[in-house]
Amino acid sequence: MMRNRSWTLARRPDGAVAVDDFALVESTFGAPALAEGEILVRNRIFAVAPTIRNWLNDPGESYRGSIPIGGTIGGMAGCEVIASADPSYPPGARIVAMSRWEDWSVLRPAQAPVPVFPMPGGMTFEQALGSYSPNSLTAYFGLIDVGRPRAGETVVVSGAAGSVGSLVVQIANILGCRVIGIAGSADKCRWLERACGADATIDYRIENLGERLDALAPGGIDLFFDNVGGDILQAAADRMARHGRIVLCGQISAYDRGGGAPGPRDMMKLVYGSIRMQGFVVGDYVARAGEAHDALSNWIAEGRIGIRVDLRDGFDRLPTAFVDLFRGANQGTLLVTAG
Predict the structure, then answer these.
(1) Residues 107 and 138 in one domain
(2) More confident site: 134 or 4
(3) Pairing between strand 104-107 and 94-100?
């Protein structure tokens, strides 16, 4: 018999998430008999992402279901297929999939809430959840397909020092846009300017966001890529240029409270400004993942983009890493290995 470690939900967070909201459960594990369409995977590395916070809320307050008290935490992971009753995923295949914070998981790829991403040969798990991760595909397709930037436009990115935001900044820079990044510390702002090519940055914690946007984008914002929502979304919506686009990627400001994520207060500004506001999910683009991989590979080889990974070793560090994410204590894409 094998051991299976699982991180479960001990209690629902009241506001900011805490390490004590999680409980570690260990049990013996025997390889199960798989039903048709099921696969047994060994989870090798975990992506610690803000969206997981939504699933810790009460039922009805999460768009992808609520994890029950005592239930295992879910999230994207790099997995090795150990046994399979699905011919599309034979033993030995490596995938990025919506799995759980545990050593061993039984998955049903055909019914997955997020489509499974097969890993090309030669790609490491760190690369699959770092440089070529669903977050990287989110940045690529969210900016290029949804935002449709044009050279010379002013692009503003919230959560700009995060995994998605920092790549959006870099790609927009490559495409000839003028890029303004919004982040939460002087260190992050310096990194965005020096390493990511941001033309200007705003530290929203100590600067007046509206005044800085007025000064940096006097002609208005052509494209706003939003990872945060709340007051930052409102400030950008008030300053959109005519025919501007708002790309809705995340709403991290709302994840620690119930009641949903509020939108802009005056929608008539969007009507009369002919503003397009569109949300998206990366699962819409699985069939085109190769396109993004090729573009990212070329830019990485040319030294035009860099993707910062905060890699932490050890299954026991998952809750601490998750809390660090909301404290802004991570440096780039936050990954935790199974150890």
Answers:
(1) no
(2) 4
(3) unpaired
pLDDT in tens, 124-166: 999 999 888 888 999 999 999 999 999 999 999 999 998 899 9
Is 52 in the same domain as 126? yes
102's tokens: 């545990």
DSSP annotation of 119 reads: P
What residues make up the domain containing 95?
2-130+308-337
- Name the pLDDT band for 332 (thresholds 50, 70, 90): confident
Question: Using CA atoms, how far apart are residues 200 and 181, in angstroms rounded to an integer?
Answer: 6
Cα–Cα distance list, 311 to 180, 203, 331 (Å): 27, 25, 9
Tell me how far apart the 2 most distant CA atoms of the chain are, in Å. Answer: 65
Paired tokens of 218 = 């006097």
Whether the Cβ atoms of residue 64 and residue 19 lie closer than 8 Å to each other: no
In this structure, the answer to whether residues 119 and 229 fall within a common structural domain is: no
DSSP string, 259-328: S-----S-HHHHHHTT-EEEE--GGGGGGGHHHHHHHHHHHHHTTS----EEEEE-GGGHHHHHHHHHHT
Domains in the chain, number: 2
Non-local (6+) Cβ contacts of 180 within 8 A are 154, 155, 156, 157, 198, 199, 200, 201, 202, 213, 216, 217
